[in-house]
Amino acid sequence: MSLFAILAHSLKTLRQSWPPYAGAAVALAGGIALITLATNLLGALGAGTEALDEQTRRQIDDLGSLFGIVASISLFMALFVVSSTFGFVVATRRRELGLLRLLGATPRQVRILLLGEALAVAALGAVAGCLLGTAVTAPVLRILHSQGVTPVLLQMPSQRTAWIIAASCGVTVALIGAWRAGARAGRTQPVEALREAVLERRRPTVVQTLVAVGAAVALVATAAYAREMPLLFALMVGLLLPIVAVVGANAAGGLLYTELAALVGGPVARRDPSAHLARDLARTSGRMTASVAAPVVAILAVAGSMVVTVGATADWSEGADRAALSAELVVEGSEEPDAIGEVPGVRVSDVRRTARVGFAGERTEVEVVDVSSAAATRSLQATKGDLSDLRGRAMAVTESYVTDIGGRIGETRRMRVGDRRIQVRLVAIVPDAPNLWGDIIVPDDLPGIGRRARDTGTVFVSTDAGADVATTARSIRETGAEVSAAAGWIRAVSDQTREMNTLVLWVMLGPAGVYAAIAAVNAVLIGTSQRRRQTATSRLLGATPGQVRRTALWETVFTGAGAIVVGGAITAFTGWLVRQAVVRDVPDAPLTFPWQALAGITAACAVVLLAAAVAGAYALREREASR
Asked: Taking the first listed entry, what is the main subcellular location of this protein, grouped into a coarse class (predicted)?
């Protein structure tokens, strides 16, 4: 049979096998929509921003890394779900493929047949996904602006690039998934057509075992190195390691998820016959169990790990600020910040100023300080070098800047201040205190910097020895400024940062969570549609329609409980890992547990599983009604 004839036959078989492929098309369309949205978010950063002021453009540019993470998560979820869904669909047609082999089809012809079906499904899913992704982009951009994530309302970019990227990724993933499944299907023996039931392989293949072992080795090595890991590296690991763990867990999913489902279902199975049957089904139906658990594990592990990683970052920032801030009061909103120093009881008034300069080939914001004032109020001190040399053509940088960019004491770099190009020398490296000073610090007598420096609206105040702090604070308030105790100011700034981080995470992970829900429901419906003979046998043996539906519900519940255990374990490991790096860098850093965000993620996963269970039970009910 020619290649053209096989591809033409693919369209005919697709019309016969469309129910499972309908679920695959939905999963593919959702993945392509997710990638389209993420690409549009990145494209919106550069669309129509030329006319904005420099500060606003810088804020928008800073969102690039954030939206890049969104794109990475979207691509990972799409690759993950679409590939497993196509594999699941092909596996459900084992007897049909065995019949084709019995009629003389070669393994190559079976693979081409499946690729032709996948290509047709991919074309339909690509069109629907691109249109859906475009439709949701504008509302998402409005939500981002209304919640303060973006300083201006970003404009919809051209859709050509997004559609090309999303469609090509989606179609490629679908074909790869179909090719992998087709390779297995090509090895289907003709005798499979004569079997009433097929026992699914639960033991991982050699490749799957290697992937799972590699992921386990990575986790063990990371745990052993946790106490020596630099903070920046730990944060990167905290974002990437969950993906490695999820891939490893799903490589062994046919064994891991089935055994966990059987384990958590054991206590209930001893009390309810339907639950007992559900536990056995979850343990023996490896593909369906893994397909339902995989998206739940992925979204719980990735989202939970991001929450604890971002929370640990806020803890580190708060601890570093507490350790450095020695001023008793922090003043904001003063119309004349320089006049704060004249208020009775004020010993040192340290006005925080920044400036925009040209540095390292781009416009960069630097901290402009009076060294003696900053040392008195912000405990500015050097861990390397000497701050007494921070005067004139000199600069200091933070430890994280050195870790990220590099730098050594004594080296000179070119800086552009206004129209002047000057050489500045690195004289000191200082600790990090994100809310007290920036990564690059210059003295207030750097040539030309005085005309470029601008007040940030924050003044750090140290009071006279023996002065009543409350009285001094009231005197400052009489000037019309807002005054906070140093500890309260740090706590308020940290709480605001945590709230914004939580909001951004929900915006980032919301679409991926919806996609995970669709994937889980889709897997249950595909699996349920392939159990007609099994359901009929149960009814012949005396099972009532209610018992059959309860079995489907319990099976999804047991599978979901096992998935939540795996996802929760990955999240807990990531939180422990990042915490080790935080306390190593800042021993007195506070420990905050983002229980609300984690509870919300877990509840969302529970809702996903409940929806999948109800969908499966409803499908069985409809089938009973149609008989």
From this structure: membrane
Predicted pLDDT of residue 530 = 60
Neighbours of 531 (CB within 10 A): 21
368: left (phi over 0), alpha (psi -120 to 50) or beta: beta
pLDDT value at position 393?
A: 92
pTM of the model: 0.75
Say whether 380 sits in a helix, a strand or coil: coil
Enclosing H/E stretch for 396: strand 394-398
369 φ/ψ sector (left φ>0, alpha ψ -120 to 50, else beta)? beta
In this prediction, residue 220 carries a pLDDT of: 92
Tokens of 331: 């003043």
Question: Chain-centre distance of CA 318, in angstroms?
Answer: 23
Q: In 147-230, which ranges are continuous DSSP H helix?
A: 159-186, 206-224
Alpha helices in 325-436 (DSSP H): 371-378, 399-404
| 394-398 and 420-430 beta bridge pairing | parallel
Q: Residue 193 has what pLDDT?
A: 47
Backbone φ, ψ for residue 106 (5° rounding): -85, 160
Sign of CA dihedral 375, 322, 240, 229: positive
pLDDT of residue 255: 85
Name residue, tokens 């869904």. Answer: 85
Render pLDDT for 358-394 as a digit per residue (tens, 0 to 9).
Answer: 887 778 889 999 999 999 999 999 999 999 999 999 9
CA 180 – CA 191 distance, rounded (Å): 22
Q: Which amino acid is located at 325 in the chain?
A: L
Phi, psi of 418 (to 5 degrees): 65, -125
| Sequence letter at residue 159 | Q
Residues 6+ apart with CB under 8 A from 538: 277, 547, 548, 551
What is the chain's length?
627
- The per-residue b/e assignment along 485-509, b for 16 or more CB within 10 angstroms, e otherwise, is ebeebbbebbeebbeebbebbbbbb
Smallest CA-to-CA distance from 439 within 468, 393, 486, 396 is with 396
- The pair of three-digit structure tokens given for residue 428, joined into one six-digit string: 């000191």
